[in-house]
Amino acid sequence: NPQKPLWLNLGYWKEARTYPDACADMARKLAQAARLGPGDVVLDAGFGFGEQDLLWVREYDVARIIGVNVTKLHVEVAQQRMQAHGISDRVDLRLASATEIPLEAGSVDKVLALESAFHFDTRERFFEEAHRILKPGGRIATADCVPFVGEKPSGLVNELGWRRWGVPRANIYDRDAYRTKLQAHGFKDVEVESIRHHVFPGMHRYAEQRSRGVGMHDAAIELTEADVANC
Q1: What is the pTM of this model?
Q2: What is the SS3 assignment for 45?
Q3: Nearest-angstrom CA–CA distance, 17 and 222
Q4: How far out from the chain centre does Cα 203 lie?
Q5: At what angle do helices 19-34 and 51-60 cross, to 10 degrees?
Q6: How far is 62 from 173, CA to CA, in rounded Å?
Q7: Contact 2/116 with Cβ under 8 angstroms?
Q8: Which end of the chain has fewer CB atoms within 10 angstroms, the N or the C?
Q9: Mean pLDDT of residues grouped by 10 in the chain (231 residues)?
Q10: 30: three-class secondary structure by DSSP
Q11: Spatial distance between the Cα atoms of 85 and 57, rounded to a whole number of angstroms
């Protein structure tokens, strides 16, 4: 069903109380960080099933999105969805790697990665490629997963946990190091914001309901101030 959302992110639960709404709000949060707008040519790195691309075209009127993804099934399904929604002329989704982006230097306005960059081998290679393809004054925005500041990535239990998520060891570093690595690859005015309080409590409540057999589109979560504060 091309009308059924196929989101693949953890969700931004600051106001949303259902999984599809939270996922859409995460895509909006990233779009706002990137300052998406009409006329933008965008690179979407690791686009999943392309749900955010539908939203960015519909709500931000971007001119064109080029997506890269290394999972063939994701590419095929997402391409079919773009065709079904009548925007395949504006969204070009390709089987390609975010660490070897098949675009010319200085060819896009924005680079976005929605909960995908921690998988890239390596994330720093992606930063290098993103900087190469961005036009002067372009912006990169990622919604990413990193350890807490100061958390040591070298412990066996810690590392195994991240590796189960498919995170290369070279990508396990905190947000202070994240900022430093972006700067090292030529990015200026870097801002790094933790949004975990509006991600993990909501996702935890949602996962609890799903484990009890509640459908994805039927689950509705409630959060207390303590839930958010204690994350």
Answers
A1: 0.93
A2: strand
A3: 7
A4: 15
A5: 60
A6: 32
A7: no
A8: N
A9: 80 95 98 98 98 98 98 97 96 98 98 97 98 98 86 53 80 94 98 94 94 90 85 73
A10: helix
A11: 11
Map residue 101 onto helix, strand or coil. coil
Question: Between 175-184 and 123-133, two packed helices, what is the crossing angle to 10 degrees?
Answer: 40
Whether 69 contacts 95, CB under 8 Å: yes
Look up tokens 């660490």; give the residue: 99
Are the beta carbons of 60 and 37 closer than 8 angstroms?
Answer: yes
Beta bridge partners of 141: 112
User: Residue 121: which residues within 8 A CB-CB, separation 6 or more?
Assistant: 99, 168, 170, 171
What is the rounded (10 degree) CA torsion for 189, 136, 184, 198?
Answer: 50
End-to-end Cα spacing for the chain: 36
Instruction: Note the pLDDT of residue 158.
Output: 62
Going by C-alpha positions, the residue among 180, 200, 198, 199 that lies closest to residue 190 is: 180
Q: Which token pair is 145? A: 């997963």
Among residues 101, 172, 167, which one has the least CA distance to residue 140? 101
